[in-house]
Design a protein that fits this description.
CATH topology of chain A: Rossmann fold
Number of strands of chain A: 4
Strand order of the largest sheet of chain A: 2-1-3-4
Structural class of chain A: alpha/beta
Number of helices of chain B: 7
Number of domains of chain B: 1
Distance between the termini of chain B: 35 Å
Oligomer: heterodimer
Largest sheet of chain B: 7 strands, mixed
Strand content of chain B: 25-35%
Order of helices and strands of chain A: EHEHEHEHH
Shape of chain A: globular
CATH superfamily of chain B: Phosphotransferase system, sorbose subfamily IIB component
Shape of chain B: globular
CATH architecture of chain B: 3-Layer(aba) Sandwich
Structural class of chain B: alpha/beta
Radius of gyration of chain A: 15 Å
Strand content of chain A: 5-15%
CATH topology of chain B: Fructose Permease
CATH class of chain A: Alpha Beta
Order of helices and strands of chain B: EHEHHEHEHEEEHEEH
CATH class of chain B: Alpha Beta
Distance between the termini of chain A: 53 Å
Number of helices of chain A: 5
Largest interface: A-B, 17 and 20 residues
């Protein structure tokens, strides 16, 4: 059994968000290598789109996780998707989503991503102290 | 309420625009001035998805925007007019006296451009266009988000602030 998870998806986000999330997956599960992290820092829209497209094509990937739904990464991923309709674009990614995806052994990437989206939604909560008014 | 911001940003409608500027300025409408996007239903749908509830977006050609600006300036809501490049804003400013100040919000690296700020790269033609706009009376400052310091055009062109 290999110690390194095969690459299964791209994470494209603002600043150091993608690298940070992937670092979190690695720290918790040792499966950070399931992702290639991309940052939009300093990149023109065409360059973000090119980076995503080349990464997806180079590793034959079917899933791109992005952060803000209205962010430049999500828009660039949607433009790549237009030319590659088999590509699944997930917006609003968080650590719970990526962890669930990374741990989904034997599940096809698109299916794993769709399931992981629900896990990510479930992880988002406002926890009110029990005695708060 | 006149249009609050005329912004040049090659990422068009994205987080900095709708969140970074949109929320603190209570922007209720965004006008994306771009001849190509104005002609593409698919791209309009794409950018429309990026606009939060309570904010409207419209897509106009340069000529359409010049014609629409008087009405936009009379709108009671706060608004932001956006172009994806300097040449488009120059055309808009040339035809619309209402454009008195321009926010240089993001022009990223491309072949032939030289870095002037962390988020501003300019070709010689783009520098000339900015100087022309300034000479015609338009105040140009670079500022990516409201919390950052506005950088006057001459300082941008000097390229001494790359941090």
């Amino acid at each position: 059994m290999s110690d390194v998870s095969p690459v299964r998806a791209v994470v494209a986000a603002h600043g150091d968000v993608a690298a940070g999330l992937v670092s979190g997956v690695e720290a918790i599960s040792g499966r950070g290598s399931a992702f290639i992290a991309l940052s939009n820092r300093g990149l023109a829209p065409a360059d973000i789109e090119r980076a995503i497209r080349e990464t997806v094509e180079g590793a034959a990937l079917e899933v791109v996780f992005t952060d803000l739904p209205m962010g430049s990464c999500a828009i660039a991923a949607r433009k790549v998707q237009r030319l590659r309709p088999s590509l699944l674009v997930v917006t609003g990614v968080n650590l719970a989503t990526l962890l669930d995806f990374a741990m989904a052994d034997g599940v096809p990437p698109r299916e794993a991503a769709e399931r992981a989206v629900q896990r990510g939604k479930d992880a988002l909560a406002a926890i009110i102290p029990p005695h708060a008014g | 309420m006149p249009v609050d911001v005329f912004r040049i940003d090659d990422r068009l409608i994205h987080g900095q625009v709708v969140v970074g500027w949109g929320q603190p300025l209570d922007i209720a409408f965004v006008v994306l001035v771009d001849d190509a996007v104005a002609d593409s239903d698919w791209e309009q749908d794409l950018y429309r998805m990026g606009v939060p509830p309570g904010m409207t977006v419209s897509f106009l050609s340069v000529e359409g925007a010049i014609a629409a600006l008087p009405a936009l300036q009379a709108d009671a809501r706060h608004g932001l007019v956006l172009t994806g490049d300097i040449a488009t804003m120059q055309r808009l400013a040339a035809g619309a006296p209402a454009v008195r100040a321009v926010n240089l919000g993001g022009v990223h690296h491309a072949p032939g451009r030289t870095q002037r700020l962390r988020y501003v790269f300019l070709s010689s033609a783009e520098e000339a266009a900015l100087r022309d706009m300034a000479a015609s009376g338009v105040t140009i400052t670079a500022q990516d988000v409201p919390a950052s310091r506005p950088v006057p055009l001459e300082q941008v062109l000097a390229g001494t602030d790359l941090s």
